[in-house]
Amino acid sequence: MTTTTATDLPKAAASAGRPPARSRKPRGLGRHVFLALVSVGWLIPLAWALFTSLRSYSDTAEHGYLSWPHGLSFDNFSTAFDQSGMPHFFWNSLLITVPAVLLTLLFASAVAFFVSRFDFRFNIALLMLFTAGNLLPAQVIITPLYKLYLQLPLPSFLSGSGYFYDSAFGVITIHVAYQCGFCVFVLSNYMRTIPREISEAALVDGAPVWRQYFQIILPLCRPAFAALATLESIWIYNDFFWSLILMETGDKRPVTSALAGLSGEYFTNPNLIAAGALLTCIPTLAIYLILQRHFVGGLTIGASKT
Fold first, then answer.
1. List of residues 6+ apart from 169 with CB closer than 8 A
2. Reported confidence tier of residue 107, pLDDT bands at 50, 70, 90
3. DSSP 150-187
4. pLDDT exceeding 70 applies to what percent of the chain?
5. Residue 203's pLDDT band (boundaries 50, 70, 90)?
6. Residue 263 forms beta bridges with which residues?
7. pLDDT tens digits for 279-294?
């Protein structure tokens, strides 16, 4: 006959309330399977482009793109890099992307600071006005914008044509105008999570509004800035529509237009274009890898409350 001591009671109660080991199911298994399938689905086009770019055109023309490769090389990458003049177009993209991202974040943060830290009658209406601009398709406004760009003058050091049309400054301007709405929406929501007591304490200490903006609010928004800088850099860098319509001189266009130079009038090499497309992806991947930690932090801030 066995006796139960006082120390055995908690163990017995814990074992009684614990489900059998066989009945346990791994939590989130279906979710992880779904995410894995989605990830594979996103990687298939990239893997297919890499596979195609490593094969010669004669190999795919003779055996087909679904056949086993008879030779792999990086010749298409070197040919695409030299034939399209990518170093020059990479520089054009840099001249457009960097100022556009910096100006977008500066203007958007100023508007977000105003609508999030001050209470006035048209606070929400102003925020909705900036956000509504992103809902308008670019194709709808391109005709009046094109005519406007042909009439707006610019100094000669900003535009060789003397107008917004056919100038990098004109493309930067439309990017800033078009991307500010999204950035204002994100930054205003982020700034609302910053306690107002910080601004009130700074106001009591005699800090003016500009000092609160530059020295208090902006440093606290660093994760949001990193996330937006990553997204905006990728979006503006990958743009082809605005530069195609608003630029006439081919040498002024960004790197996305360099791919168009790889297509001939009567013959197009898909393997060469695939290699060129992968080369244009390198800067965006580098930006994401550099800002990855801040990017993830900016997306997850506010997801849980303590």
1. 154, 158, 159
2. very high
3. TT-B--TTT-SSSBSTTSHHHHHHHHHHHHHHHHHHHH
4. 86
5. confident
6. 268
7. 988 888 888 888 777 6
* Phi, psi (deg, nearest 5) at residue 137: -65, 145
CA 172/CA 97 separation, integer angstroms:
8
Tell me the CB-side half-sphere exposure of residue 71, using CA atoms within 13 A: 9
The alpha carbon of 12 is separated from its chain's Cα centroid by a whole number of angstroms, namely 55
* CA distances (Å), origin 267, targets 62, 115, 237, 261, 264: 16, 54, 27, 12, 5
Q: What is the 3-state secondary structure (H, E, C) of 9-57?
A: HHHHHHHHHCCCHHHCCCCCHHHHHHHHHHHHHHHHHHHHHHHHHCCCH
Residue 189: pLDDT above 50? Answer: yes
Distance, CA of 72 to CA of 43 (rounded, Å): 20
Mean pLDDT rounded to a whole number for the chain:
82
Nearest to 65 by CA among 78, 80, 50: 50
> Which of 53, 47, 105 is closest to 79 using CA atoms?
53
Question: Which pLDDT does position 103 carry in this prediction?
Answer: 96
Which amino acid type is present at position 234?
I
Are 65 and 53 within 8 A, CB to CB? no
pLDDT above 70 for 193: yes
- CA 196 to mean position of chain CA atoms: 30
CA-to-CA distance for 139 and 137, rounded, in angstroms? Answer: 5
pTM score of the predicted model: 0.80
Say which range, 142-156, 199-213, 252-266, 271-285, has the weakest mean pLDDT: 252-266
- CB contact at 8 A, 281 and 90: no
Distance CA 181, CA 191 (A): 15
List Cα–Cα distances, 233 to 91, 189, 241, in angstroms.
14, 21, 16
